[in-house]
Amino acid sequence: MEVLVILVPLALALGFAGLLGFLWSLKSGQYDDLDGAAWRAIADDEPVNGQGGSK
């Protein structure tokens, strides 16, 4: 039971740190363009030559 004296404040502190990180990411615009990153990942920007794509 003595370990709860350490674990409960530690869990609360980690939860608060996660909340602060999430709020910071919202404020800095990390979630502004969710579709753009998905389309950039599958976009075929570089032309592929006849040798399997290696240059």
UniProtKB/TrEMBL annotation:
Cross-referenced InterPro entries: Cyt_oxidase_maturation_cbb3 (IPR004714)
Record-linked Pfam families: FixS
Nucleus found in the keyword field: no
Membrane spanning residue stretches: 6-26
The UniProt record lists the keyword Transmembrane: yes
Swiss-Prot/TrEMBL keywords: Membrane, Transmembrane, Transmembrane helix
NCBIfam families (UniProt xref): ccoS
Protein name per the record: Cbb3-type cytochrome oxidase assembly protein CcoS
Encoding gene, per UniProt annotation: ccoS
